[in-house]
Amino acid sequence: MYVCLCKGVSDRKIRESVSDGARSWREVQQETGCGTQCGKCACVGKAIAREAITSE
Ligand code: FES
After folding, report:
1. Does residue 43 line the site of ligand 1, with CB under 6 A?
2. What three-state secondary structure class fits 12?
3. pTM over 0.80
4. From the alpha carbon of 36, which atom of ligand 1 is closest?
5. Phi-psi region for residue 24, left (φ > 0), alpha (ψ -120 to 50) or beta?
6. How far apart are the CA of 7 and the centre of ligand 1, in A?
7. Does domain 2-54 have CATH number 3.10.350.10?
8. Domain boundaries in the chain?
9. Which of 7, 14, 25 most suits a substitution to test ligand 1, by most atoms within 8 Å of the C-beta?
10. What is the pLDDT along the chain (56 residues), one digit of tens a residue?
């Protein structure tokens, strides 16, 4: 499912960025662009990134 419509980032893309080495929400943002435009998706994006990071 798409988390970020502005940048077209899916939950899968966020998880991929974590398995590729992103270790914080900020790094996920830098890599995917999620939450860097309107910011509406930041809350959900951050939660998915955190969950993925803690389960790494
Ligand atoms: Fe993600 Fe707008 S929906 S920045």
Report:
1. no
2. helix
3. yes
4. 4
5. beta
6. 6
7. no
8. 2-54
9. 7
10. 999 999 999 999 999 999 999 999 999 999 999 999 999 999 999 999 999 999 98
